[in-house]
Amino acid sequence: MNSKMLTKVAHLALAGAFLTLASALPAKAGNDPATAKIEDVRAGAQKACESGKTFKIAYSHSVSEAAIVKQVRHFADLRAAELGCVTVLHDNTQANNLEQQINAVQGWITVGVDAIVVTPIDEAALKPFQKQAQAAGIKWLTYLGVMADSDGYVGFDHAQSGQIVGNAAAQWVKENKIEHPKALITTLTGLMSLSPRWTEVERIFKENGIEVVAKQDSADQASGLTVTETVLKQHPDLAIVIGLNDDAAVGAYRAVTIAGIDPEKIFIAGQDGSKEGLLAVNEGKAYKASAAILINELGANIVDQALNAITGNGPSFAFTPTVLASKADQALLDKLIANHNQ
What are the residue ranges of helices labelled H in the chain? Predict the structure, then answer.
């Protein structure tokens, strides 16, 4: 994957954050992130601190300069402070710079941290350091990208995300009695690990008689705008736009606004719960939903799952929940927006 694609991927999830790899998750018993419960993740970490021991956990993201990554790190630090037995070390890897990430990982191995949580920029390049860390007794967890033989995985379920927005759109069609609804879905076919974000939407739309008139790659606002403008010229009665992420959906929202389309007659939804996407949902117009990742839980999971990998007290492989952000639950929407302001 070239640097241009990696930079584009960096703007996919949570308004600029992640998933660079598509390896399969380990198949060992107890390592299925879909079965892990958040309460068990939290309880295991609490038990680790009750032992009286202290721990050092290091966290490397591939685009630490992104605002959303700073927020996730903030919630990791809050959780560490709450537990009281953990110090979280952060690196300064930016723009998917592999050399910066390797230097950080090497330093953490040298000082002997207890666990490393890393968004792997290049699995092959990091593999020797994974082996070195694990040989030294350091637990190796991956964040959103996956590596074989890791001790944990912190991430979220793309299929759940696609299902949330797909079902929300189908429900809107039913409630508003839209006849022969047409939909645009944005994709990123160069990164098929993300495909459930659109294939689940396609499946749900097919089951509900919604015609997908266009599928186009788009993961940023500029392309979301131009793709939607093009499709609207061909299908002025377009009723639904589902973005691969909130960036693409925000671009679509601008196109629909410029075109002067009645916001009551179109459903736009994004995925990830970026601040800009959530604020658009809060306007109560055409942008009606986002499949939002709970970034406060995601940050806490970095700490808790690392502790569980170290102690074995709870799940170290787990998905962070994704929820429907919409005006139908204003309290939840307000909370999700507040997560970006802390």
Answer: 3-9, 38-50, 67-83, 98-111, 123-135, 158-175, 196-207, 221-234, 246-258, 275-282, 295-311, 330-339
Who's near 148: CB < 8 A, 6+ residues apart? 23, 24, 26
By three-state DSSP, how is residue 67 classified? Answer: helix
pLDDT tens by residue, 207-221:
999 999 999 999 999
DSSP 230-293: HHHHH-TT--EEE-SSHHHHHHHHHHHHHTT--GGG-EEEEEE--HHHHHHHHTTSSEEEEEEE
Domains of the chain and any CATH numbers:
3-156+294-320 (3.40.50.2300), 158-293 (3.40.50.2300)
Contacts of 251 (CB under 8 A, 6+ apart): 218, 220, 221, 222, 223, 224, 225, 226, 227, 228, 243
The Cβ of residue 126 has, within 10 Å, a number of other Cβ atoms equal to 23
User: Could you give the CA distance from residue 119 to residue 250 in angstroms, rounded to a whole number?
Assistant: 26
Contact (Cβ atoms closer than 8 angstroms) between residue 271 and residue 246: yes
**pLDDT interval class at 202 (50, 70, 90):** very high
In this prediction, residue 30 carries a pLDDT of 62
Strand partners, 66: none
% of the chain beyond a pLDDT of 90: 83
Distance CA 59, CA 86 (A): 13
> Per the structure block, which two tokens stand in for 195?
């495909």
Contacts (Cβ under 8 Å, ≥6 apart) of 286: 253, 256, 257, 261, 263, 266, 267, 268
d(CA 319, CA 297): 10
The residue type found at 177 is K
